[in-house]
Amino acid sequence: MWFRQQTASGPNSWPGFSWQDFVAATRGMAADEAELRRKFWRKIKREAANLPFLEELLTAHYCAFDRHTPLYVKVILIAAIVYFVVPDDLIPATLPIIGYADDAAVLAGAFKIMSSHIKPEHREAARRKIEELRRA
Fold first, then answer.
1. What whole-number distance in Å separates Cα of residue 118 and Cα of residue 44?
2. Does residue 65 belong to any structural domain of this protein?
3. I want to staple 73 with a disulfide (CB 3.0 to 4.6 A). Which of 6, 61, 117, 125 is the partner?
4. Does residue 92 lie within any of the structural domains?
5. pTM over 0.85
6. What distance in Å separates the CA atoms of residue 116 and residue 5, rounded to the nearest whole number?
């Protein structure tokens, strides 16, 4: 019954969600891209020595900001990156050992879902950046 109501109201509709909302959200993300990148790099430089999942995080960053990556992949990867950057999350990063467990779990989930879109050049760019950070 629910499915019939949805198809009757149009194939592009969903309760409480419209494509106009999606378009507005993606435009907002594009406008906030520079701010997100600034916060991302500031936190990476501050926390680089302590992150066991740094390579995966940087790989997700390079995949998310690759112009050839499909929009839905970008949305999921950027959501994982935002979760890492935002200081208020499920487990505070200030807790020793487990502070980044939730960040790693969110990133691992995004990676698992989007693994077919992560290219070797994204991984290589992440490795190069890690070497650059370690030399600095």
1. 20
2. yes
3. 117
4. yes
5. no
6. 34
